[in-house]
Write the structure tokens for this entry.
Amino acid sequence: MTTPEQATDFVHAAVPAIGRFGLQVTAIEPGRVALSMPFEGNGNHMGTMYAGALFAIAELPGGLLPLSVLEGQVVPILKQLTIRFARPARGTVTLEAAIDPGRLRELAAQALADGRAEFDLELQVTDAEGEVVAISHGTYQLRPAAGVSSGAARATIATSESP
């Protein structure tokens, strides 16, 4: 997953509903992801963005951020997400999220040693004017990927050249 287009294709294949929302990965690099989702196709009966679409963009970074550094080593799982809708969204929304890549490697090592590791993300979804439309708090869990031996995965994580 080196380009935003590849990341978008991956997400749309892994979770087809994300593709139906029109969600796009606009930037991805180790420990950082930016997302965008259009209003078109995501409106509701009130003329605002559907709450489920806003939930989708708020939830996704917790899965993409670990993959931006640890691809193939661990599997991210959402444990809990709360969302507060701050104001109606009536256009394209965006979200940027980041975690220090070193912290992600520490979490992966913990997941490989203990079978799981948890992290929290508090994120803001914004509209085209930069106004916050939703605030989310998610708890995510990393688990070792199927078929990855703990020792080999630890060596890969420890020697990774990602910052």
Residues 120 and 139 are 4 Å apart (CA to CA). The helical segments are 4-14, 16-21, 51-59, 61-70, 101-114, 150-159.
